[in-house]
Design brief:
single chain; about 110 residues; mainly alpha; 2 helices; about 95% helix
């Protein structure tokens, strides 16, 4: 190997090492960088996420309150239904007693 071939081989190796180093730097920089414009986007997304979480929390609170209100209305409706059923049962019993009384009165006459 003469001097010219050694110089060319060294130059090619150095060029390949430089290209590989530059590519590794570019790749690393591409995946790890957060530029000023990107930070603004990250801040905007963080603010939007925060607002969405607040809205979700408010919706959950509203649904819990509404559920408690509806459960109260259901309990009240069930109590009214039981009272109505008891009144109807009493009215049927009274009606049956009145029928029997009227039949006995007609039978005596």
């Amino acid at each position: 190997m003469n001097r010219l071939q050694l110089t060319i081989a060294t130059a090619v190796i150095l060029l390949l090492a430089f290209a590989l180093g530059w590519f590794a730097y570019w790749l690393l920089h591409r995946f790890t960088r957060v530029a000023g414009g990107d930070m603004a986007e990250v801040d905007r997304l963080a603010q939007a996420l925060h607002e969405a979480e607040e809205t979700r929390d408010q919706a959950i609170l509203y649904l819990e309150q509404r559920e408690a209100e509806l459960m109260g209305q259901i309990a009240q409706s069930e109590a009214e239904l039981r009272a109505t059923m008891e009144g109807l049962r009493d009215a049927r019993t009274e009606t049956e007693e009145m029928r029997n009384y009227i039949e006995r009165m007609h039978a005596k006459s």
